[in-house]
Amino acid sequence: MDARRKELGDFMQALRARSQPADFGFASGSRRRTAGLRREEMAQLVGISPTWYTWIEQGREVNVSAEVLDRMARSLKLTRSERAYLFEMADRRDPQASLPEDDDAAPIFSTLLADIGVPAYLMGRYWDILGWNTAAAELFTGWLDQPVDANAPPPNMLRFVFLRPETRTFLIDWEIRARRITAEFRADCRTRLDEPALLRLVDELTAASPDFAEFWKQHDVLERQGGERGFQHPQRGLIHYQQVTLRPVEHEHIKLVMLQPA
């Protein structure tokens, strides 16, 4: 038996056992021989036959559709982690995974940024810069040190790299960095490529930057990695940092980027 199918069946059985029949409109009482929902009741909740549901729990070689998994997750009010685990064990893409999320950074992150001594900033789902500290403003002079307009969109890393001419001098090995940034962005947005906001950003960059258009068409995909980053600062000259990117567990669409002097 495939280990993942067995794990899916065991997980579904555990979910069923912990569910209270009365919460789903089923009669409860002493006549029940097992705790939680019966297999027939679970099958009714997710809209499949009891036999089919039983086969899934038994880890048999049957395909479970994303629609069935979605109904189960909704009916049982699974947490985000439980839902992700359910879809992962079933080897299915969660249709809810690409739905837009609130891109606001929690207030605690702003406090955290202020306490970080090295340049640090927060990037959102489309690489908008949601917050930064004084050290980052001093590094990205002419960009992050400018007055914030509450009515304007937040600064965006891709617009900074591809639409500002001075960035080609500021970033050492601009073409290599820009090509990698494009590949990292594609990887980061791989589950959201059909979202309207992302499509608008890609269209804007494609129309305004031949370089971005070329790099995007190459379909390179790279996970965001750390490493040395060089900058030609207008006041400080050539400076180097080691970049580290962290993702808060409770806000997976946000990235905390820190630059440690090399």
Automatic annotation (TrEMBL):
Highest taxon, organism lineage: Bacteria
SMART domains, sorted: HTH_XRE
Signal peptide: none
Ranges where the HTH cro/C1-type domain occurs: 11-83
Pfam families named among the record's database cross-references: HTH_31 (PF13560), MLTR_LBD (PF17765)
Protein name, UniProt field: Helix-turn-helix domain-containing protein
UniProt source species: Uliginosibacterium aquaticum
